[in-house]
Amino acid sequence: MNYLWNVLIVIGGFVMMEATAWFTHKYIMHGFMWRWHKSHHEPRVGRFEKNDLFGICFAVVSASLIITGSLESPFDWRFYLGFGILLYGVAYFLVHDVFVHQRLPWLKHTNTTYFKAMRFAHKVHHKVNVKDGAEAFGFLFVSKKYLDKYRQNKKA
To answer: Where are the domains of the chain?
Structure first.
């Protein structure tokens, strides 16, 4: 039974991060921390941008939970929550940085409607290069609105 709880905590941590990423993106990155996030809405010079500091902040939270949770034997809930956040960070890197923004030359030719709609929603988000007025703040959850818009653009 303990094994099941640990798996559920990992999954819960991963899912919780989607809501956290949406909230952070909309109200913090496009709010009082725009000075960091602004770099993500401008042409990048070099491999990194100031916005990458947000990933480091989330990595510190994840690592802290993993480390403190591993001090107990057996590992406690903090380890599994930190691991769920870590998995989300890996997914974020692969989907957002590699697939959507092509920061590495992998995953260029993905043809599924879901991934193309995700890229479309992100392009809609990046049409606005200022702090206010943007939409589509999610990451893994692609709303029906963007799935439908992608399907319409694909037919045109």
So the answer is: 2-155
Long-range contacts of 16-22 (CB under 8 A, 24+ apart): 16/84, 17/58, 17/84, 17/85, 17/88, 17/89, 18/88, 18/138, 18/139, 18/140, 18/141, 21/88, 21/92, 21/138, 21/139, 22/137, 22/138, 22/139, 22/141
Q: Look at residue 31 and tell me whether its pLDDT is greater than 60.
A: yes
User: For the whole model, what pTM was predicted?
Assistant: 0.86
Measured in whole angstroms, the distance separating CA 77 from the mean position of its chain's CA atoms is 23
The label of the residue with tokens 């602004």 reads 38
pLDDT, tens digit, 9 for 90 and up, residues 36-85: 999 999 988 888 999 999 999 999 999 999 999 999 889 999 999 999 99
Neighbours of 102 (CB within 10 A): 12
Question: Nearest Cα to 48, choosing from 109, 119, 101, 90?
Answer: 101
Distances from the Cα of 108 to the Cα of 85, 96, 113, angstroms: 26, 12, 14
